[in-house]
Amino acid sequence: MLIGEVAQRSGVSARMLRHYDRLGLVSPTGRTSGGYREYSEEDIRRLFHVESLRTLGLSLDDARRALDEPGFTPADLVGDLIELTRQRIVAEQELLTKLERVDAAGPAEWSDVLRMVTLLRGLESEFGARRQQAILSQDDSAQMPASALAAALLAEKDLNVAGALQWSLARTPGHGVAALEAGLDSADVVVRRRAVAAIAAVPTAEAAAALRRVLDDPDDTARARAALALGSRGSADAVPFLLAMVVEGHRDVEAAEVLGHLTEVSASAQDIVAAMQHTFDNTGETAVRLRITQALAEIPGNAARDALSRLTADEDRTIAVTAATILESRRRAGGAQKG
């Protein structure tokens, strides 16, 4: 076949075929009766081999070596190609993510796109100060979409930068709760904790609903943050988890304070005290009994006072003295208020 027919049938342009010929990669070895150079069946077969190798990412030089050098083994080269392809995929994915975030911002002009790209590049800096500066320098015309801010926050280790991202999220519609909520499903417990902390700072019903999901999280820290945040908002759903925190000694002082707050807004002080008393009576662990006694100090009302009065006669002197001290402190506080 002549070059024109080869180009038509193979899909390789005549210009590229001439380039292959000059490189000695694929050259026509036959001649027509009129003296024109002609591609033989073997030449065509070699051409398709070259094109196949190129689809794997081989350079023309590597393709020539693979076909002509018997000692040129594929193992190392293919391994290198695999690594390069993985790097290219990562780079392409990063580009796609960046484009999606720019698109989500709804830029109207190319100047908006450039500002958004500048912000995104700032967030990619290895220096926390530069990341923070990029966030704080945003203006309303180049506000990053909540999804981008949430993704950055869930990955951010620097507390100062995380605070700046939280501030920026507070300025976005919905505070980015929907985007942050995706972090609650992460297999990485650190990411889940960041998501809980970020959502806990958002004072909306949507955020409260997301926090209730966390009460079933297997991580103690995530559950504790969610329970404290919900309890502080007046949600009685947090009560059993806060009681468990007192018993386990995990942020028990904060849990007791929030339980006291709940009795004033949504929960029954009598029910909470009854639950504490039940646990107290059914545990032999001195540390647990002492934490419950101390937690009763935060519960207002007669139920807690009566429970503390009973505990002043406890056989454990530390518990008895603690209960008596709390009662005396409450008596003085009540007297001061009357005065």
Automatic annotation (TrEMBL):
Keywords in alphabetical order: DNA-binding
Signal sequence, start to end: none
UniProt-listed Pfam families: HEAT_2, MerR_1
Identification of the protein by name: MerR family transcriptional regulator
Source organism of this protein record: Rhodococcus gannanensis
HTH merR-type domain span: 1-69
